[in-house]
From TrEMBL, chain A:
Species this chain originates from: Pseudohongiella nitratireducens
Reactions the enzyme catalyzes: a quinone + NADH + 5 H(+)(in) = a quinol + NAD(+) + 4 H(+)(out)
Protein name, entry field: NADH-quinone oxidoreductase subunit G
Domain 4Fe-4S His(Cys)3-ligated-type span(s) in chain numbering: 88-127
GO biological process: ATP synthesis coupled electron transport
Gene expressing this chain: nuoG
Cofactor: [4Fe-4S] cluster
Family: Belongs to the complex I 75 kDa subunit family.
Automatic annotation (TrEMBL), chain B:
Annotated protein name in UniProt: NADH-quinone oxidoreductase subunit F
Domain NADH-ubiquinone oxidoreductase 51kDa subunit iron-sulphur binding, residue spans: 326-371
Function: NDH-1 shuttles electrons from NADH, via FMN and iron-sulfur (Fe-S) centers, to quinones in the respiratory chain.
Top-rank EC class of the record's enzyme: translocase
Protein species of origin: Pseudohongiella nitratireducens
Catalytic activities: a quinone + NADH + 5 H(+)(in) = a quinol + NAD(+) + 4 H(+)(out)
Cofactor dependence: FMN; [4Fe-4S] cluster
Keyword Iron attributed: yes
Family label: Belongs to the complex I 51 kDa subunit family.
EC number in record: 7.1.1.-
Subunit structure: Composed of 13 different subunits. Subunits NuoCD, E, F, and G constitute the peripheral sector of the complex.
GO terms of molecular function: 4 iron, 4 sulfur cluster binding; FMN binding; metal ion binding; NAD binding; NADH dehydrogenase (ubiquinone) activity; quinone binding
PROSITE patterns found in the cross-reference section: COMPLEX1_51K_2
Length: 913, 430
């Protein structure tokens, strides 16, 4: 966090000399030195408040001092030359645990946290064993916190981490500390779902079992019984590193996997709770099927027959997917030939993603990782509703506004780890964040200005700012006085910034907005070489798909135009990519349609051949995230035999490693993919890397009800990792860094043992390879002429819960999602004669609810994306709506679940005006 | 000694209104203070040696001097009127009997600090003081002593009265600041001190009511006069008081350094008939017991400190020979336990445990091992272990009680009953 490194100082701890960073606190440095010191309230991402008193150690005034004085390591800066002891404060630390245990129920045996409980670890570490308290315990009433998080307050040790994460770090408001003394209670004012999009992190932040993963609890397994693998979230374009866990062939849960450059310690609730579809027979395709015609009933086929049928489809075109891995797309491209490979993206999304790729290749600005986002001290967001399209980045932006507080703290010589003091000092002063958006966003509470305008106007404002940094950019017209004043403020903020950042992306579905963002970054770069640019995409591998397209312009509309008779679609539902009528027409003209997919889709329902493919949890592969970071994910478990990874359907004879290598050798900019894994032949200590912990239980017994013979361990044809508990996790090979564990550290806190310093890089290497980082400073291209043909009457509205195809099929997410709707400003509705609270007929899509929101730009209509009941491609760009007075709300219409950012702007429906 | 704090107090007539107060020489210090440069006035107060009257006794002028130079932004003076220390009722007397003295002190002090806004953070239960202060503040505004032009100058000062929602911890200055901001009343870690980052992150001074009430007379009469008001080394007069089974419990302004014997015998009229002095808490519930042999201790910060206790608020609670000391300590600990803010572990979880053991002992269910645990607890919650001074303060009567009343503790446990056996609140709460 500190800018610039201070010189190390030397201290001794129990006569052991160590070199430490004086800008860090003692606790961090003690842990970084590999020593064990128990703690609770401190967290590497949330720093120190000194409440739990667990990390006590003894500081000696000088060499003569025999007694020393007790200090809290997390609240102390190391003093050069000072002498400390951990041992001398051991009794106090045991007493602290004993105090916390007074009301703790000791229900480890039935607690979900048992076995990965920081409280258990710290209790053992502190030496406290026998509880002397013999009175009654304090008990609490628990709350129903919604579908994601369980609540068991009796286990609470009152470390305040939950509210510090939820409120201070993530900006939530509906969870708080209540009451006082030993009745302190952490909960909501009333039962109800936690509103924060990051609530799942409570389960990881809580050092014991107060907040637990409710989805996991429904099919619970101990941590040590979970088979896990290093994986990548498929929920959006950020590519958070995750650690899924499996038992008995079902995916049980997803937890955060540390990657300091991407997600750090936290992921969003879509990523954590949006994988239920993997286990859901109603959603999954478990067995390949054929249909003699599009209307006929499907017939199950064997893998061999299905493979043969795929083999026989010569002359087919291939349609790839942004949710399929690099290798799966590449295998399809190889199968059908580059000339016959189409991206499976709408014309518009293709154009924007292609533009983003080209910008990344040309821009002099640095492509911002999430770590860079947090380090930026002046941010402009153009059009992207980050909380709903790339939630983890929204959380990073929320941290970026804290730089002002760090500056103020530095002025007052307050160490930056002193979290409460640093936050108090700045109060509401923040580093500048500007948001130009057609509607209110969840980040508005920390923005300097949220300017409500359509994408075209946002692009012009960005251009106006750019023109102030470089006269080559033409200052646009059509800015009113308020906007000109805004341009001045943004310009001033960027001039004063150490590291400015521009964020835009493909989800706003506006090409000129992305272009204008790039121009602004380029203009800013002339003045500040630390300028950052982040252009988020929509799905896990959208940018990767564009890398595969190379110079090809073949989007989905072009595929439709081929008039082909035969097509292979990999993991893509065309009805989510193009107008319904166009897809219908295309499919109707096909004699052969093969769909390789892991979930049932409308496209698949009409296919002649459906091949059951593996999800991210059952297959390995590579995703390229929004910043061009290629990241490899390893299968967590082996699916039933009838399910094959998409790569095996398309290239049955080729290993995954061969496909990855082929990508790296064939595709421009993809050479770095060769370094993603330690290689197919990797062994550590002579064995493959185990997916199961050494405490994995029931290996010989868990299938004994079916067969007393222990089955042969499943083989992973991709090598590197085994479906076994044999072998040891390599300590210094971050590319296969699985579930962290260290002696005495069974909880996720153990990750610091694998970092070069607390909160730093994983030892040896970080995860992933940035493909688009310029090795040599490329020649700068000129500014992009903005596409001026775009109309801005309609804009897309996203939902973290519901807009993404796969997670939306998960029951936990569905409990927080809603069906499709159209939203507009009440002034427009009045003008156009729409009734408040009524429905509207959308061309080609029937009737959907109309939501009136004050915070929507007038003259624009918001169209929900991905929610059931409306195909956004039917509506954009020219929206045509008719009032539907006879409207009745569909059962899935749950307006309460719309996490509208304009919570303060009450729904007009409810106001009843 | 000249009465500086109580000179206007006449219980037969109630507090003076603005005109009456001015007629008695009130608000004269405002003009005099504003003739001084702010830093000069801070130096004056520092030299006068006015110890903080909230209980810590820290030099007020020195505390003020840590405030940085004005930067054009807001600066705050906060009067700590959240008087909740057990057995303490001196600020209440001052505010109910002479509210304008406090307001005058606030204005003079605010000038020295160049504060832009002042708050009086008043204990919520002090409803009479609230009413009287609100009236007095209105009067001061109406007569131009507060507002855009203090006393006709271009110095602007706003004064607000805030009534507390009621927690003992709000008497801790940083918790008070949090409460005033509308946050949970938990203390903040120091540094940064409130002078640097206080209310809403801005420079802030928090001073006790009595401290502020001393400012006008120091400004008017000077350092030498103030130093003469004390009997010993320490300067000024001080509000003293006694509660307990004495003949005339009450509160008086006396020179700092007055002996406890004088206070008890001359002012409180000695012990009530049939009761003798067993021990006394010199300055509120969070000070160590002193014993009858300490009758002649001069009541000053340093002299009481030498005996291992604290002068605290200087409002003495007398423990007589008919009252169970364990019951007394339990009562205090129960209060402190309930008033813990819940922020740090030793205080939040340690105090209820101590309370539990004391109740068990008092009610005849005590165990021998409790005595070792209680001793251990006094260290566990001692100074430096906890986030703020609440728990160490709570341990003061316990640790001194364990020292002086060990025989009683052992008797309770051995006989499995309270030998005092009077109808105590404890029996009801059990």
């Amino acid at each position: 966090m500190a800018d610039g490194m201070s010189e190390k100082v030397s201290i001794t701890i129990d006569n052991q000399a160590i070199e430490v960073d004086p800008d860090k606190n003692l606790l961090e440095e003690v842990l970084s030195a590999g020593l064990d010191l128990p703690y609770f309230c401190w967290h590497p991402s949330m720093d120190s408040v000194g409440s739990c008193r667990q990390c006590a150690m003894t500081e000696y005034a000088d060499e003569e001092d025999q007694h020393g004085r007790l200090i809290m390591a997390c609240m102390s800066s190391p003093r050069d030359g000072a002498r400390y002891s951990l041992q001398a404060a051991a009794d106090f630390r045991a007493e602290i645990i004993e105090g916390m245990m007074i009301s703790h129920p000791h229900d480890c045996a039935v607690c979900e946290e048992g076995g990965e409980c920081h409280l258990q670890d710290m209790t053992v570490m502190s030496g406290h064993t026998y509880r002397r308290y013999d009175g009654t315990k304090v008990t609490h009433r628990n709350q129903n916190l919604g579908p994601f998080i369980g609540h068991e307050m009796n286990r609470c040790i009152t470390c305040y981490r939950c509210v510090r994460f939820y409120r201070d770090y993530a900006g939530g408001t509906d969870l708080g500390a209540q009451a006082s003394h030993h009745h302190v209670y952490f909960g909501r004012y009333d039962d109800g779902p936690l509103e924060s999009e990051f609530s799942g992190n409570l389960a990881e932040v809580c050092p014991t079992g107060v907040f637990t993963d409710k989805v996991f609890s429904k099919h619970y397994s101990r941590k040590w019984d979970l088979q896990t693998s290093p994986s990548i979230c498929a929920g959006c374009s950020i590519g958070c590193n995750i650690n899924p866990g499996e038992r008995y062939g079902t995916l049980r849960r997803v937890v955060n996997r540390y990657n300091d450059e991407v997600n750090g310690y936290f992921i969003c609730d879509r990523g954590r709770f949006g994988t239920g579809y993997v286990n859901d027979d109603a959603v999954r395709i478990r067995q390949s099927m054929t249909r003699s015609s599009q209307d006929a009933d499907p017939v199950l086929v064997s893998n061999a027959d299905a493979l043969q049928q795929l083999q026989d489809m010569s002359g087919a075109i291939g349609i790839g997917s942004p949710r399929a891995s690099m290798e799966a797309n590449f295998a399809l491209r190889e199968k059908v030939g580059k000339a016959n490979f189409y991206a499976g993206l709408s014309q518009q999304e293709f154009a924007i993603l292609q533009q983003i790729l080209s910008i990344y290749q040309d821009t002099p600005a640095h492509i911002a990782s999430l770590k860079d986002v947090e380090a930026s001290d002046a941010v402009l967001i153009l059009g992207e509703d980050l909380t709903n399209t790339a939630a983890r980045m929204a959380l990073a932006v929320r941290q970026s506004v804290r730089h002002r507080s760090f500056e103020k703290a530095a002025e007052q010589k307050i160490p930056l780890w002193h979290d409460a003091a640093v936050r108090k000092l700045a109060m509401d002063e923040r580093s500048p964040l500007y948001i130009l958006s057609p509607h209110a966003t969840r980040l508005d509470d920390v923005s300097e200005t949220t300017h409500i305008c359509n994408a075209g106007q946002a692009a012009r404002i960005a251009a106006a700012v750019a023109s102030r940094f470089d006269k080559e950019v033409l200052a646009p017209e059509k800015l009113d006085k308020a906007e000109q004043a805004l341009v001045k403020r943004i310009t001033a903020s960027f001039k004063g910034a150490r590291q400015p950042l521009i964020i835009a992306g493909s989800n706003s579905m506006s090409l000129p907005l992305v272009q204008s963002a790039a121009n602004l970054a380029q203009a800013l770069y002339q003045k500040n070489e630390l300028t950052q640019l982040a252009l988020v995409g929509s799905e896990a591998n959208g940018l990767g798909l564009m890398l595969l397209m190379e110079d090809s312009q073949q989007d989905l509309q072009q595929a439709f135009a081929t008039g082909t008779q035969s097509a292979i679609v990999v993991e893509n539902d065309l009805y989510r990519r193009a107008p319904t009528a166009e897809v219908d027409h295309f499919i109707a003209g096909l004699e052969q349609l093969a769909v390789i997919d892991n979930i049932k889709t409308r496209t698949g329902e009409q296919a002649h051949l459906v091949c059951a493919s593996a999800t991210f949890a059952e297959s390995s592969g590579t995703f390229v995230n929004y910043e061009g970071r290629a990241q490899h994910y390893y299968a967590t478990f082996k699916p039933v035999d009838s399910i094959l990874p998409a790569t095996r359907w398309l290239a049955p004879e080729t290993s995954l490693a061969t496909l990855t290598q082929a990508c790296s050798q064939t595709l421009a900019n993809c050479a770095g993919m060769a370094d993603l894994t330690p290689g197919q032949d990797y062994h550590y200590a002579g064995l493959l890397v185990p997916r199961q912990q050494f405490r994995y239980s029931g290996r010989t017994a868990m299938r004994a009800n079916k067969n007393v013979h222990e089955p042969k361990q499943e083989q992973d044809p991709d090598g590197i990792m085994s479906y076994s508990m044999e072998g040891v996790s390599p300590l210094k090979e971050a590319r296969v860094f699985n579930t962290p564990w260290a002696p005495g550290w069974n909880s996720n806190q153990s990750v610091f043992k694998f970092q070069d310093e607390v909160g730093g890089h994983l030892k040896q290497s970080s995860i992933g390879v940035r493909l688009l980082d310029k090795r040599n400073s490329a020649e700068e291209g000129g500014y992009i002429a903005l596409d001026s043909s775009e109309k801005n009457t309609a804009f897309p509205l996203y939902h973290l819960f519901g807009s993404e195809e796969l997670s939306a099929q998960s029951q936990a997410i569905q409990a927080r999602a809603t069906s499709a709707y159209v939203a507009m400003n009440p002034a427009d509705a009045d003008r156009l004669g729409f009734n408040a609270g009524g429905g509207v007929t959308v061309q080609g899509n029937g009737v959907v609810p109309l939501l009136l929101r004050d915070s929507i730009a007038t003259g624009s209509v918001g169209i929900s994306v991905g929610l059931p009941g409306l195909n956004v491609h039917d509506v954009l760009p020219d929206v045509s709506l008719e009032p539907a007075p006879q409207w009745q709300a569909p059962p899935q219409w749950q307006p309460d679940n719309i996490i509208v950012s304009d919570r303060l702007h009450k729904l007009h429906e409810q106001e009843g005006d | 000694m000249d009465k500086a704090l109580t000179k206007n107090i006449d219980e037969t007539r109630g507090p003076l209104d603005y005109q009456g107060y001015v007629a008695a020489g009130g608000y004269a210090s405002v003009a005099k203070a504003m003739e001084m440069a702010p830093r000069d006035m801070m130096a004056l107060i520092k030299e006068a040696g006015l110890g903080g009257r909230g209980g810590a006794g820290f030099n007020t002028g020195l505390k003020w001097s840590f405030i940085p130079e004005p930067d054009g932004g807001p600066r705050y003076l906060v009067v700590n009127a959240d008087e909740m220390e057990p057995g303490t009722f001196k600020d209440r007397l001052l505010m109910e009997q002479d509210p304008h003295l406090l307001i005058e002190g606030v204005i003079a002090s605010a000038w020295a600090l160049q504060a832009t806004t002042a708050y009086i953070f008043l204990r919520g239960e002090y409803t009479d003081a609230e009413e009287l202060l609100l009236t007095a503040i209105d009067e001061a505004y109406a007569h131009g002593m507060l507002g855009t032009s203090v006393n006709g100058s271009d110095y602007r000062l706003e004064l607000y009265l805030h009534t507390s929602a009621g927690r003992y911890i709000c008497g801790e200055e940083t918790a008070l600041i949090n409460a005033l901001e509308g946050q949970r009343a938990t203390p903040r870690a120091k540094p940064p001190f409130p002078q640097i980052s206080g209310l809403w992150g801005r420079p802030t001074l928090v001073n006790n009511v009595e401290t502020i009430c001393n400012i006008p007379s120091i400004v008017l009469n000077g350092v030498d006069w103030f130093k003469q008001q004390g009997l010993g080394e320490e300067a000024g007069s001080k509000m003293f008081g006694i509660s307990g089974r004495v003949n005339n419990p009450g509160c008086w302004e006396l020179p700092l350094g007055t002996t406890f014997r004088t206070l008890l015998e001359d002012y409180a009229g000695g012990m009530r008939e049939g009761y003798s002095l067993k021990a006394f808490l010199p300055g509120g519930g969070s000070t160590d017991f002193l014993m009858p042999e300490h009758l002649d201790v001069p009541m000053s910060y340093s002299e009481v400190g030498k005996l291992g206790s604290r002068l605290g608020t200087a409002l003495v609670m007398v423990l007589d020979d008919k009252t169970c000391p364990i019951g007394c300590i339990h009562n205090l600990i129960k209060f402190f336990s309930h008033e813990s803010c819940g922020w740090c572990t030793p205080c939040r979880d340690g105090l209820p445990w101590v309370e539990h053991m004391l109740l068990e002992i008092e009610q005849g269910r005590g165990k021998r091992e409790y005595l070792d645990i209680l001793k251990e607890m006094t260290g566990y919650m001692g100074p430096g272990k906890t986030f703020c001074a609440l728990a160490p303060g709570a341990m003061a009567p316990l640790q001194s009680g364990l020292k002086h009343f060990m025989a009683e503790f052992e008797q309770h446990i051995d006989e499995q009953c309270c030998p005092y056996k009077h109808d105590h609140q404890l029996q009801r709460s059990a």
